[in-house]
Amino acid sequence: MSRAERPPMSRVDRPPLDKAVRDRVTRELGTTFLLEASAGTGKTHVLVDRYVSCVLDPEAGSGDVRTVAAITFTEKAAGELRQRVRERFEQLAGEASPGTPRAALLQQALEALDDAPIHTIHGFAARLLREFPVEAGVDPAFEQLDALAGELEAGRLWETWLAELAAGVSGDAEARVWLARSLRAGVRLETVRELALGSNGVFGERYDLEPIPGVPPEPDLGAGLSALVAPVERLREFCVTACSDPGDKGCSGALDLVEHCERLMSELPSAPDELAAKLLRLPVKSSPGALGGRQGNWWGGGEGKAELWDRYSALGQAIAVLRDAYAVFVTSLAVAVADAFSRWAGATQLALG
Prior knowledge:
This protein is an all-alpha fold. It folds into two domains: 19-136, Rossmann fold, CATH 3.40.50; 145-353. 61% of the residues lie in helices and 2% in strands. The longest helix is centred in the C-terminal third of the chain and has 51 residues, at 302-352.
């Protein structure tokens, strides 16, 4: 058959472009590999091949599926991997010559596969703890919570901790102050709860993350608001003297921000947390178009409008500096509360065994 007459290779027949890498993963069992690929490109297929080689390889294979661990992130993935491994062993068993050592090894692998350590991280850890309960100091009859049960237990602990905190039972006076201040500053309790119970909370510990450093020094709100005095005066003076129409959208918007700032400055030194909440909500426009106004209403036309924006944005930048500093502080309060809960919940769980 000539080259022109030869039928094209189908997608099934054509070897993958990374076949050499796949073969290495399957053969080089003493080498650690990190595989990175998008979904549907065959990562599980390669993992199954390597798993089978770890059992069957005549030189490096263990010969026993119970000595080969495969760890996944989800129960669904673990179940799929176990099923795919079973299907591969069944395929190879069907191809093996009856009565040979390979056929016997494959039959043993199939019979023992239900006991193979193919688990999630939590499942594998639970298996180790059950095998060595005395060394780990745990009750061998402990139960591993599924995702739903874990969420319910986390929620129960959160509500218990809040009740103890409110009653002064938990003894964490700092956390009580942090929570009260963060709520007064506008942080939602649900946000704090999510920080506590989310991926970085006690039920999703990440040991690769840096420890929470604690609450940073509180910004000097008085000094920060004092820094607004000059840009406030410059903006108000320009609006009063350079705009012929007090109803101009740009003029009224600028004066509205001026009034908000003056109101905040007049409320010092009382209620710093409430002032912080108001500061974080100041209505600062982000562009000249958003501020609005007609050129014809301003002295110098376009130049006047440009000067308005320059003075407005100068005040906006001064507000942003103070707002960003206080936002970091308020967020740190909420994170510190979440960390206090995590430490309490961890200690509570350990005490319960």
